[in-house]
Amino acid sequence: MIEVSGLVKDFGAHRVLDGIDLSVQRGEVIAMIGPSGSGKSTCLRCLNLLEAPSAGLLRVGDVTIDASRPVTRRQRLGFRRPLGMVFQSFNLFPHMTVLRNVSLAQERVLKRSRREADEISRQLLDRVGLGAKADQHPSRCSGGQQQRIAIARALALDPEVMLFDEPTSALDPELGLEVLNVMQELAAGGMTMIVVTHEMHFAESVSDRVLIMADGRIIEQGPSAEVMRNPQTERAQRFLSAVMNR
Amino acid sequence: MTAGFLAPILGGVIWTLALSAAALAVGMVLGALLCAMRVSGGAVLAALAAMLILIFRAVPPIVWLFLIYFGLGAGWLQIGAFEAAALGLGLITAANLAEIFRGALKAIHVGQWEAAQTLGLPQVSRLCDVIVPQMLRITLPSIVSYAIGLIKDTAIASTIGVPEIAFQASNVSQATFRGLESFAFAGLLYIGLSIPIAMASRRIDLRLRSKVAR
Fold first, then answer.
1. How many domains does chain A have?
2. Is the minimum CB–CB distance between B2 and chain A shorter than 8 Å?
3. A91 — alpha (psi -120 to 50), left (phi > 0) or beta?
4. CATH class of domain segment(s) B12-212
5. How many Å lie between the alpha carbon of B200 and the closest alpha carbon of chain A?
6. Closest residue, chain B, to A150 (C-alpha)
7. For residue B213, what is the nearest residue in chain A, using CA coordinates?
8. Which ipTM did the prediction report?
9. Are B187 and B9 in contact (CB under 8 A)?
10. Each residue of A4-42: pLDDT tens digit?
């Protein structure tokens, strides 16, 4: 489904991603963990071209982006089409109702009618447990609710892969749990997911594969329980013991 | 005592309003354009916009009006007093609004652009559905207070013969030698124009704010 090879990202003289290779199968749930500044978020943001990769090849479905060549607008749109994105800061549109937030892109991108879009939006909002919030504005919703709305908004475009950039980091543990439950249901439903997270329990029990990043590289990866319980490299051991034993 | 001699001043209200509206319209369009140039990312465009904004603002309104009406109007282009005033005040308004717009753009979280992008919204929709409505909310109070200032600034258009409130008051005062009444009435009219605008803006602002505030 997704194929990344030799992904490099430089910010000026600073190399943030130093040769990432990754392939993701359909239906696979991947957790990316690692210390702050290790490049996890940048990697995810390169994956949907929010950051322009400095070098490397990216493939999603049958669209390939070569960082060494200029990317056309059409390529970028086609590349992003199957990708849904959920941000740490939710990024809901504050001036629209919850329902409009979920419906807007369906109308503008998928050319659904207002009625059709609203109907799908209400179903999705019900699915994330927020049907009753449809006519409110996002500011009237808790952080956990906002994040679930953001998930519904991304799902409304029928994505094949969902990308999550620290979806619970701005939430207190209880609200984070609401969001994690929705994500767990998504995973159980067969959605392909890449999740940048500090939620070690999610990484261990929900994801199929864990990637540990440090200094712009993937230093360790494998089946979740194995990597989390029995890391091989010293750097991964240090990181995991810091986050697990607290 | 009859106040009927003041009636012609009332006739200036429509010109004052028309000129304010025209200058604001010119300012909005040009201001949006200048703002777009400044944030376009192109170094030449941005520098050009910055220079235009500086020039528009540094030259006093009355000099702009004379420059356009007596300068360009003297053979360079066919332009009436109203159009010259609308253009002159419009340029100054554009410069000020461009900076107000730019401030508002900066105030909108970058995540809004990113969300719009990742949803695949077309460029037009990103602006019209996501960014501009939020800019409107942020800029409304500044635009309205600028507009109220603009209504008063239109008085200088009397110097090139636009028959607005100040022009009429001046005429009446010269014809009747009742300057105090004439200009006091003119003053009252300006106050009368500003108050409803300020009130309306407050209501709209509160309504917009109530949606997004906790």
1. 1
2. no
3. left
4. mainly alpha
5. 20
6. B115
7. A139
8. 0.92
9. no
10. 999 999 999 999 999 999 999 999 999 999 998 899 999
